[in-house]
Specification:
Helix content is 38%, strand content 21%. By secondary structure, the protein is of the alpha/beta class. The protein has two domains: 270 residues, Aldehyde Dehydrogenase, Chain A, domain 1; 185 residues, Aldehyde Dehydrogenase, Chain A, domain 2 (3-Layer(aba) Sandwich), CATH 3.40.309. The strands form six sheets. A seven-stranded mixed β-sheet has the order 15-16-17-14-13-19-20, with helices on both faces. Strands 10-9-8-11-12-22 form a six-stranded mixed β-sheet, sandwiched between helices. It has a three-stranded mixed β-sheet with strand order 1-5-4, covered by helices on one side. Helix 2 packs across helix 7. The radius of gyration is 25 Å and the shape is globular. The termini are far apart. The relative contact order is 0.14. It binds nicotinamide-adenine-dinucleotide (NAD).
Length: 502
Amino acid sequence: MRTIHHLIGGAATTGAGGRRADVFDPNTGRVQAHVVLADPADVDAAIADAARAQVGWAATNPQRRARVMFAFKALVEAEIDTLAEMLSAEHGKVIADSRGDIQRGLEVIEFACGIPHLLKGEFTSDAGPGIDVYSMRQPLGVVAGITPFNFPAMIPMWMFGVAIACGNAFILKPSERDPSLPVRLGELMLEAGLPAGVLQVVHGDKVAVDAILDSPLIRAVSFVGSSDIAHYVYSRGTANGKRIQAMGGAKNHGIVLPDADMDQTVADLVGAAFGSAGERCMALPVVVPVGKATANELRERLLPEIAKLRLGVSTDPDAHYGPVVSAAHRDRIESYIGMGVADGAELVVDGRGFSLQGHEGGFFVGPTLFDYVTPTMQSYQEEIFGPVLQMVRAESLAEAITLPSQHQYGNGVAIFTRNGPAAREFAATVDVGMVGINVPIPVPVAYHSFGGWKRSAFGDTGIHGTEGVKFYTKLKTVTQRWPGLDAGAAVTDSSFVIPTMK
Ligand code: NAD
């Protein structure tokens, strides 16, 4: 059976750790490969090699670093079909969606191609007599990224694209559930001209994560995953003096006002709730129609669209979505559906027990719709991360704004309306980090920054965009005076008070 290796020091290696994890084919439920799991010694070896490589990389001028990013983008584009197949085979999302996963990551690589411009500091000439002040952004050294299973291409590229362009070396600890694609991205970075060691791919579980968080050589860690682990990473990492950004789970709401374009809203909701089997942190698993008539119309229109959804294996070009990532995750989603029933919500469409003919062992969950969900229900309060849409009926816009604002998660939210002032008020007041106005999945473009609020993100800096550059660099400010410019001036006496511009 195939073994998926680490990429340490530019070479494939099984490392010293003897532990392995199963990698499943979600379409069939069968184990298709084993991935090596790092011991602390493997992580330390990767970090030491990265620290060695980082010195030369930081001294490489930004334009040359950008050229590696340009070359990497071309290499990824040249084999995007193969990469998408590799991604789908372990994740289960349909091929077109895997291409989107890769493309969204490449958009951050495109942003990183502009790094010479992004790293330009500020300069003030003659801030005082013969005195100039300038600032520069310097790389941190060795930084790390710990990524989830649901975007095995996009999220690693969000992180290493910007970090490496800034002059850091990067330790990538991808999800152990779909580890092949991140290794291939690492190989393509080498082919693009990145010196060996600047990007290390180390597989593992909590053991590897703890070794990263405890290493004194790691200056900063980006994490994306579930909220409890995000909080753990944030707490342990910051206690060890590291800069941490840790993105967590989500429960995004779509508010539908009576004046919304209903045809478009229904199409958007179905795609955002069920696309990728709901395994997106920017999915829309909660819909909040305002007013009884809106709720009834929405329910009536959603039903035939849900009935038309086609589940299939990830290679089926006609499938709307494929299996979820694991049997354990399928069981968890189904237990949440059971919880919704026990909570007293109305189960309108039940996706439990779905079986795809010829793929009975696959991890499929049918589309599920709940109506009359209320904020006190546990199945509403927690993230399900599956193809389950919950309808919470609201009487007014004010009540609809309160729901996402008071939810423990604050990743994304969307409003569907033609009412400009209402949308404007909504965007200004809702307590959520990323807002869509008639946009169901408001993931910011690469040159803006991604980041939720509340339990969806720990730490203050967004991912990619200028926030990403800020996160992976430290600011140095220089105040300079050159003897000779003020030739003939008398030597000034020692001053024992703070210099001012008075
Ligand atoms: P996860 O939290 O299980 O795993 C994320 C990473 O943490 C993986 O690399 C994993 O190996 C590691 N990990 C797992 N258990 C650990 C432990 N006990 N100690 C230390 N590290 C551990 O998340 P997942 O299931 O891979 O991904 C789905 C979750 O990610 C969902 O909650 C989703 O909302 C969230 N997510 C959030 C964003 C965002 O930007 N906010 C984006 C994508 C996914």
